[in-house]
């Protein structure tokens, strides 16, 4: 039987931290409702102590959503946990996400502390958060660069203290997929009480590895993926929800599944991009403008013969209305003929050759050839044929 992967969406927390992407409470509510409709399991709604606005957003999202767990971020500090607990009061199922740095670099240069003190503070934070009556997720910040035996000791201790979920973030996007996968495997093999918690993967994209690392973590035993819509997030971003969901759906051999209603992906991608004023790069996997656009003659010809020649995902599965054929000077006769037939013309043989030559002149001049240009080309052709 396939294993369920919990989708933990942090668009409204890690994603919203990006300069210029801040949302008002009403906008966060719109996104939260769409995330619920999309089928995410957990919504990280904000970092309640960070500002009154974020506190209010966590309160309102807790009231508004019914199915997903609502999560609030904290540091391993009493005041953070108190404020998060208050913000989550109305949640049907609330989760406090608390944690502390686990790598030596963070321990020494961020906390100016020691491994022993960090472990003690992490355990205390989990126990204190647990005493508030919520689910507790612990994050070991910068776990991607942490000493593995120490990381295992820390994770074992916080699980013993009551953590329900243990998050192993590659905070700096440092890991390569096989190394991140091995980290998760090491924890599965060396943390004695690991069966009492869900392992979560949270990857950043500094080396462009976030999705690959997330999948490597899942393949090695993690059962929750922390992701954002369009992969937005600190610096080069977080793992993108749509990439993980569609990789799992496309690769049935992984024997995993999510509850994501993939046909809603494109709509929420547009909503987040618009509200956060963050355009999606045209070649972004799954949701970019060019993700289902075919522009070279060889590809267009193959695609028109059989879509699966060049598409591994049916655009309708992610809510994209249709694939597109972009007409440029690299397009061939097959694509040109297909488009003019869609416009109601019929051309073949020598007439098509003549049209194609004229089309290339326009394409070299303009780049993309649009339908209006084709109407003009067809009209000119008709005049010449008289
Ligand atoms: O990247 C990270 O380590 C985080 C934690 C706060 C979970 O976002
Ligand atoms: Zn992060």
Order of helices and strands: EEHHEHEHEHHEHEHEHEHEHEHEHHH
| Shape, principal axes of CA atoms | elongated
Heterogens: 3-methyl-2-oxobutanoic acid, zinc ion
Question: Using only CA atoms, what is the Rg?
Answer: 25 Å
Query: Which class of secondary structure composition applies to the elements?
Result: alpha/beta
Please give the count of helices.
Answer: 15
Average pLDDT confidence is 97
Question: How many domains make up the coordinates?
Answer: 2
The first-level CATH class of the largest domain is given as Alpha Beta
Largest sheet: 8 strands, parallel, barrel
* Assembly state: single chain
CATH third-tier fold name of the largest domain: TIM Barrel
So, CATH architecture of the largest domain? Answer: Alpha-Beta Barrel
Instruction: Give me the count of strands.
Output: 12
The termini sit apart by 68 Å
Fraction of residues in β-strands: 5-15%
User: What is the strand arrangement across the widest sheet?
Assistant: 2-3-4-5-6-7-8-9
Describe this structure in words.
This protein is α/β, with parallel strands linked by helices and 386 residues long. The protein has 2 domains: 3-275, Alpha-Beta Barrel (TIM Barrel); 293-385, Recoverin, domain 1 (Orthogonal Bundle). It has 15 helices and 12 strands. An 8-stranded parallel barrel has the order 2-3-4-5-6-7-8-9, surrounded by 6 helices. Helix 4 links the parallel strand 4 (69-73) and strand 5. The termini are far apart. The mean pLDDT is 97. Bound molecules: 3-methyl-2-oxobutanoic acid (KIV) and zinc ion (ZN). The site of zinc ion has 7 residues, from loops.
């Amino acid at each position: 039987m396939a294993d369920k992967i919990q989708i933990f969406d942090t668009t409204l927390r890690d994603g919203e931290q990006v300069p210029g992407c801040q949302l008002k409470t009403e906008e966060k509510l719109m996104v939260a409702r769409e995330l619920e409709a999309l089928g995410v399991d957990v919504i990280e709604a904000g970092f309640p102590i960070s500002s009154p606005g974020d506190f209010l957003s966590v309160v309102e999202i807790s009231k508004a959503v019914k199915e997903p767990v609502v999560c609030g971020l904290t540091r391993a500090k009493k005041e953070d946990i108190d404020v998060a607990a208050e913000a989550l009061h109305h949640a049907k199922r609330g989760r406090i996400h608390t944690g502390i740095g686990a790598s030596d670099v963070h321990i020494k240069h961020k906390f100016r502390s020691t491994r022993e003190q960090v472990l003690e503070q992490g355990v205390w934070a989990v126990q204190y958060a647990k005493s508030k009556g919520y689910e507790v997720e612990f994050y070991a910040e910068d776990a991607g660069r942490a000493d593995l035996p120490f990381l295992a000791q820390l994770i074992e201790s916080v699980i013993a203290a009551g953590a329900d979920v243990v998050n192993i973030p590659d905070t700096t996007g440092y890991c390569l997929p096989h190394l991140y996968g091995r980290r998760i495997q090491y924890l599965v093999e060396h943390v004695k009480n690991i069966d009492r918690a869900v392992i979560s993967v949270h990857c950043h994209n500094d080396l462009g590895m976030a999705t690959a690392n997330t999948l490597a973590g899942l393949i090695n035993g993690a059962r929750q993926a922390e992701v954002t819509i369009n992969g937005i997030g600190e610096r080069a971003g977080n793992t993108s929800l749509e990439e993980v969901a569609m990789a799992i759906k496309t690769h049935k051999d992984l024997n995993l599944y999510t509850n994501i209603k993939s046909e809603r992906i494109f709509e929420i991608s547009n909503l987040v991009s618009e509200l956060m004023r963050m355009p999606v790069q045209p070649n972004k996997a799954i949701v970019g403008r060019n993700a289902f656009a075919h522009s070279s003659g060889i590809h267009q010809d193959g695609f028109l013969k059989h879509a699966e020649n060049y598409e591994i995902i049916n655009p309708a599965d992610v809510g994209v209305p249709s694939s597109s054929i972009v007409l440029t000077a690299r397009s061939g006769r097959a694509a040109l003929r297909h488009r003019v037939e869609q416009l109601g013309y019929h051309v073949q043989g020598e007439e098509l050759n003549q049209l194609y030559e004229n089309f290339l002149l326009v394409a070299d001049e303009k780049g993309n050839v649009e339908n209006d240009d084709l109407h003009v080309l067809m009209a000119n052709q008709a005049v010449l044929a008289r």
